[in-house]
Write a structure and sequence with these properties.
With about 280 residues, the protein is an alpha/beta fold. It has a single domain, classed as Protein-Tyrosine Phosphatase, Chain A (Alpha-Beta Complex). It is built from 11 helices and 5 strands.
Length: about 280
């Protein structure tokens, strides 16, 4: 585990710095500039002081309206921009996923189901993910923290997109996604198992939606490569900008970068992102 990157908080389990990852070119993601987290509604006074000490001035919230109403974020001194980019809940924005399982509305979720959910998010909310990357590329918004509810699905996709555009290798991107399991998912599953057993739900039947399975993110990124990678322009799957831009290596756009360009990201933003966030 990247213990040095974890921000230890009382009221959030999955907060960490994305800085320090190495790119294929040998550069590193700038430490102290990008943070990902789960929800911020239970932050303690000490937590607020810790996050303020990091100089974080922009908070991006991927949660939808009902989630925000249920769990209002606590923000710290120094936050100058609180940006809402709702991507919607993974299942139902009005009823939490755990409540749906306990109510018998959701009996099983496979890894294939999760891949489908992630792709639906990406294809439905591409403009918002593109806007998020634009915010991250703007030095006036740094340091920045982004979050959703568990900090694993929408935040996991957002982190993967950023790291891919920055040129971090795929295995490391997947490692970052899976770190959620150690920081949050294993504890959460342990807490929920007795409750689920009371309503005859086998935790293994819903484990993929409670955790961050490596094959899920691997399949999603591979699908973006197929649809939006440099070779996809020949058959039109990349959309209007899918084969434009430059990857970190100087070659044509990677699948995730091509996806963002197709979603409306300004072609100059990836280079600005790398200029401001790589050292």
């Amino acid at each position: 585990m990247r213990r040095d990157a974890v921000v230890v908080l009382e009221g959030a389990r999955n907060c960490r710095d994305l800085g320090g990852y190495r790119t294929a070119s040998g550069r590193r993601v700038r430490p102290g500039a990008l943070f990902r987290s789960d929800r911020l509604n239970s932050l303690s006074a000490d937590d607020l002081q810790e996050l303020a000490s990091r100089g974080i001035r922009t908070v991006v919230d991927f949660r939808a309206g009902p989630e925000i109403e249920r769990d209002r974020s606590r923000l710290w001194a120094g936050v100058t921009s609180h940006i809402s980019l709702p991507v919607g809940d993974t299942v139902d924005g009005d009823i939490s996923m755990v409540d749906q399982i306990l109510a018998g509305r959701l009996h099983s979720v496979s890894e294939a189901d999760m891949v489908e959910l992630y792709m639906k998010m990406l294809l439905t909310y591409g403009e918002r993910f593109a806007q998020f990357v634009s915010v991250a590329a703007d030095i006036d918004h740094l340091p920045m923290l982004f979050h959703c509810t568990a900090g694993k699905d929408r935040s996991g996709l957002a982190a993967a997109l950023l790291l891919e555009v920055l040129g971090v290798d795929r295995a490391t991107v997947l490692d970052d996604y899976c770190l959620t399991n150690e920081l949050r998912s294993l504890q959460r599953i342990s807490e929920l198992t007795p409750q689920f057993a009371e309503v005859d739900i086998d935790i293994d039947d819903v484990r993929p939606i409670l955790s961050a399975p490596r094959p899920v993110m691997a399949a999603v990124l591979a699908e973006l490569d197929t649809r939006y990678g440099s070779h996809a322009g020949a058959n039109g799957t990349a959309g209007r900008n899918g084969s434009a831009g430059s990857a970190a290596s100087g070659s044509a756009a990677s699948g995730p970068e091509g996806y963002l360009l197709a979603a409306g990201l300004n072609p100059g933003v990836p280079e600005m992102l790398r200029a401001n966030l790589l050292i």
